[in-house]
Amino acid sequence: MTLGQRDQATVTSAGVALAKAIVGVKTRSTPNHVDHRGTVFEIYEGLNDYWDEPVVYAYQFSVHPHQMKGWGLHERKLDRYTIIAGEILLFLWDDRPDSPTRGVVQKVVMSDRGTRQVTIPVGVWHLSVNLGDTEARLINFPTEVYHHDSPDRLLLGWDDPAVPVDIRAHLPRF
């Protein structure tokens, strides 16, 4: 008799994730240039396959250790996150009525050792969780400026029963 449960593969032998991805979500690992003085990574190199819409606005935000921000959703603009420091577990939930991936929950670990940039499509709910012991800092390059008189953001509580994922199951330290 064997105890335990067989491990399930999460990536192919080529490193491609096996989990279902949400249509329109883009991720990117940027090259890090390292030498004896420190490191450099390029955030924005002009319009290309990843940056296919102009940069019109940018702001930095942070998530304190063992805290979360979200659920939030935008009705008009994309969010384009770049992580600068720390590590974030980003949850994405597709609740777009006409999306072929409606109902899919996608998890992306953002860190300087892997996925550094994520584009979140219009209409996709997102929640950022800092599982680490240091503050996580990110820059967002949304495709619209912030409208103080009419913010483009809908909010849900992190534990809202409408969300098809139990965040607590992924947060053993909380």
Describe the model.
The structure is a single chain. By secondary structure, the chain is an all-beta fold. It has one domain (about 25-160): Jelly Rolls (Sandwich). The chain contains no helices and twelve strands. It has strands at about 25-30, 30-35, 40, 60-65, 70-75, 80-85, 85-95, 105-110, 115-120, 125-130, 135-140, 155. The strands form three sheets. The chain has a five-stranded antiparallel sheet, with no helix packed on it. The termini are far apart. Keywords: Capsid protein, Virion. GO terms for molecular function: dTDP-4-dehydrorhamnose 3,5-epimerase activity. It comes from Pseudolysinimonas yzui.
Any chance you could write out the topology, listing elements then pairs?
Elements: E1 26-28, E2 32-35, E3 38-41, E4 59-63, E5 68-73, E6 79-85, E7 87-94, E8 105-111, E9 117-120, E10 124-129, E11 136-140, E12 154-155
Antiparallel strand pairs: 1-9, 2-3, 4-11, 5-10, 5-12, 6-9, 6-11, 7-8, 7-10
